[in-house]
Structure formats: structure tokens, C-alpha cells
Amino acid sequence: MKQEAFSKPVVRRRIKGSSAAKGESDSTKGCGNSNNYLQAIIDSLEDELLVIDRDYRIIQANEAVLIRHGKRREEVIGRYCYEISHGVPERCHPPHHECPIKAVWETGKPARVTHAHVYYVKGEKRERYLDIIASPITDSQGNVTAVTELMRDVTAAKELESKIAEAQRNLLALNTIASVVSQSLDLDTVLSSALDKTLEIMKANTGGILLFEEERQLLCYRVHRGLSDTYAGEMCLSLGEGIAGRVAQTGEAILVEDISVDGRAARADLIAAEGLRAFASVPLRSKEKVLGVINIASHKARKFSSGDVRLLNSIAAQIAIAVENAKLHQEVQRKEKVRGELLRDIFSIQEEERRRIARELHDETSQVLASLAASLEVAADMLPASADKTRVTLRKAQTLSVGILDEIHKLIYELRPTLLDDLGLVAATRWLVDNNLRATGIRVSFKTVGHERRLPPQLETTLFRVVQEAVFNIARHAHAKNASVNLRFKKSVIEVRVSDDGEGFDIEEAISSKDRPRGLGLLGMKERVELMSGILSIRSHPSGGGTEIDIKIPLNYEVSSE
Ligand SMILES: Nc1ncnc2c1ncn2[C@@H]1O[C@H](COP(=O)(O)OP(=O)(O)OP(=O)(O)O)[C@@H](O)[C@H]1O
Ligand SMILES: [Mg+2]
User: Fold this and answer.
1) Which residues neighbour 334 within 8 Å (Cβ) at sequence distance 6 or greater?
2) pTM score, whole prediction
3) What is the pLDDT of residues 365-421, one digit of tens each?
4) What is the Å distance from ligand 2's center to 504 Cα?
5) Going by fewer Cβ within 10 Å, which terminus of the chain is more open, N or C?
6) Which ligand does the CA of 477 lie closest to?
7) Which residues sit with Cβ closer than 5 angstroms to ligand 2, an ion?
8) Whose CA is nearest to atom 14 of ligand 1?
């Protein structure tokens, strides 16, 4: 198809020497005048109008035609329509230029087509679209004698239409990318699915995503398709190096028709071995920071359109957000792991320290106190009958030291009940309940269900500390009449329920209270249980409905030993 230069026709809306222009009526004029008038009407049309005979020769043309083609009327009349319209020596034919005139001659009915005209302005390709309505002119017998062609420039509408179509395509593509990348928070899964979808959208099968590694200060492939492992493994670039390095440094996309001859490319040997030609590299930018680049390549030279660039940039922005989220998630997970390890260490150091203090209190302080009490008793007995007052004082001191001894024994137990180490969770918990609830007048039910057995020391300590906190809370805050502690030993899980019929409390308020250290007890319980991969749930009814705490911890060691 011949390409033709077009300039937008400027149609002068005037009726040359027409009677209408002078406000005269056609009916009042003669035949010459009526021809002029008719010509004036068709010349006043903004659309182009041709009248064409059976041989495809132009027998009539309006001024819009003359202006667009820059010709005088006598240069147009008598010429073939396709010569004037397309500058070609042959009739219009599909697929680009279907001839509507042929259809009108054959059917006697109007026909409508759209012709695309390609032309160049300063070497740049442009397209112009003409909507053509061809209609028959018939004689009194209804025979077609000529055909009119009314041509309207619909380029602007077509451009708008294709912009809307492109926007729709892009939206659809972005939607797909967004939904694909939001399905996971795992970085590698996000990158893989994002790359696959992008290649599908760009109708390509070669490409990859490179991420910038802060520690090594290198941009390396994290996922790739259609590229060899050698290429992806060796193509690690520093900022500014090669095409992807430049993109990561400047944050601007680079598109090349043929990377094999592009001086900016790094590792020409790898590129040649891979046979890469067209190459698009787009930054993955999030909050002004370039996280990496996405490369789309092809083994054939290809020119990426400005629409491709826009689409790739939007896709890359979506991927960058997903990458950022996945990285943050990864970081949170890493920190959570470190926090868990630290907590575990803290709890075990705390437990060790309690054990040491309890031992010291038992071996040193309580021994000294016991011998002090014994000595006081002996001293009191040895006093002569006349020293009654001193005896009374000594006896009081002895009673006091026995009382302190009792307190110290209780403290030793609370610090680290030897029962827990010696007899296990059930005995230690029973002691806890008796000494802290029953002793204060609360009616307590203590039950165990299932196959009662020793559990790993760390698990027994966790459960004991959690029940201890729950029991202390009942004693300190609940004002309960009744309480119950139930331990249920199952095959692969241990369940504990501590409940009371006290005044209850607002859990949210207690946990989020800024009045620290209040509320650390409940948080500590939760932390301890979660460290053992367990679940702790609290239900409380603030207006006197009591509180119920459920703990479930899997017995993984049992599962694995089975
Ligand atoms: N069984 C309960 N009945 C009523 N209120 C409770 C009960 N358990 C906890 N609470 C309320 O929840 C609050 C928080 O309990 P938490 O154990 O976290 O902290 P605390 O007991 O006040 O202090 P500590 O950090 O020493 O344990 C308590 O102050 C109390 O108001
Ligand atoms: Mg507490």
C-alpha cells in the first residue's frame, strides 16, 4: 500500500456565488443557478464527497476533497477514485481497503467501510481513518447510475477508541498482576507468578526479575524464564552496569530493539550466547527506591511501543509493591523468630535463676532460720524460772522465726516448686491451687482427665507458670467464690482450663492498658503458650460472669516418637 502524506483539510464553509448565500430561494432560479446551488451545498460540507461512475471515475467532487488532496477540480474530475484517494493505480481491495462502491453497484444498497491511510511526518508513522458511506444514485427506473462516497475523518474517534481499548487492556493486565501477586507473601512465589503473568501479558516467553541485594550491592536474577541458568547465574550487575544496572540506578526504563548491538549492554558474550535481541528493562520502584528490575526479552528484534512501555511501567509498580510487602513480611518473620528465641532464652534464664534462689533460700537461709528457731527454743528452756519475761520474749522470737521459715518455704515453692521437678505438673498444680485458692476460702475443683503422665520439662514449666499466673489473678482480682482447674491429657495435645465465677474483666482494656506493669501477666501467659506452638484463649464477662482461660499445647514430641 502506498503511503501518502496527509494534512488535515481546512474546509471553508462558504457557498460560492450561491443564491442561498444571498438569501435567494432555489425555486426562484433557473437550472444553471440550481446546479450552482447544488455545488455550493456539497462544497459547504466538512466531509468529503465524491460522485463516481461505473468505471470508478470521479464525476463530481466537493471542495473538501480538493483541499485535502491539494488539487484543482479539473485535476480530479475524470480520474479514478483510487488514484485520488490512495494514490495507487489499482482498485481498493481487502483486507485494508475494502471497496464499498463495488458492493453498491452489486446490491443497489448503501455500503459502509472504514479505510486506514498510513502516512509519515518527519519519518514518524501516522494513521488516518476515513469512514466511507457509499450510496447509490438511481434513475427513474431504479437503476443505479452513479455512486456517491461521503467520507468522514474519524481518526480522532479511532484514536480515542484505541486509547480506551489500551486503557482497558492495561487495567485488566494490572488487575491480573495485582490479584496474582497478592495471593502470597512468600517472595519467591510472588516473583515467579508476577513474571509468568507479565510474560503472558506481553506475549513473550523470555525474561526475569532481578533484585538489588543490599549486602553485596549487586543486582541479580531471582527468577527467570527462557534464559539459561548460566546466563541468569552470571548476569549479576552492579548499579550503573549494563542495561539493567542503569535502569536500577536511574529508575528509568530502557527499551532496545536489538541488545546484541547495543553498546550499553554488559557481558556481550553471555548475551550473544543466549541469542537475545529485543530487550526491555523496567525498574521495580517502590517509594522512590529501586528494588530491582524486570527484564522482558525476545530472540527476534522487536520494537516496543510507547503503550508497551506504559503497561510495563504500571506492571512493574504493582510488582514492586508486592516485592516490598513480601520483603517486609520476611523481615517481620525473621524478627519474630529472633524474638521467640530471645524469649525462650529469657524464660529459661529466669527459671534457672529462680531455681538458684530457691536452692539458696532452702540450703542457706531456711537452714539458718531453722537452727535460729531451735536455738531460741533451747535458750528459752534453759532460762531459770525467775527469768519469765525474757523467756516470753525468746518464745515470741522463736515463733516469729518459725513463721518466717514458713513464709520462706512458701516462697521457695513459688519460685520453683521441687514438686514440679520431682513429681511433675499435676502435683505442682494441685499444690498451687491448694495454697493459693483453697487457703483463701475459695471453693476449688481440681480435675485431671486422660492418661496422666510426665511431659517434657520445658512444657511442664510453661504450663505451671501459666496456671500459676491464672491462679494468682483469681486470688488477686476475681473476688470469686468458686474456681476450677482442669487438666486434660490427650494423645497429641494437652488442654488446661482455669475458670472462676468472679467479677470478670474487660480483656481488651486489660491487655492494652498503658498502666504497666499491669497486664504483663496475661501477655506473658500468651507469649509462653505461643512459644510452645500452643493457643491461649480468654473469655471474661465483666459484670460478674467470671473468667475462663483455655490453653492447648500440642505434644509434638509424642507425635514424632510415635
Ligand atoms: N480472673 C480474673 N478476674 C478478674 N479480673 C482479672 C482476672 N485476671 C485478670 N484480671 C484483670 O486483668 C488485669 C490484668 O491481669 P494481668 O495478670 O495481666 O496483670 P496483673 O495481675 O494486674 O499484674 P501482673 O503483671 O503482676 O500479673 C488485672 O489487673 C485484672 O484487672
Ligand atoms: Mg497477674
Assistant:
1) none
2) 0.61
3) 989 999 999 999 999 989 998 888 999 999 999 999 999 999 998 888 888 878 888
4) 13
5) C
6) 1
7) 473, 521
8) 519
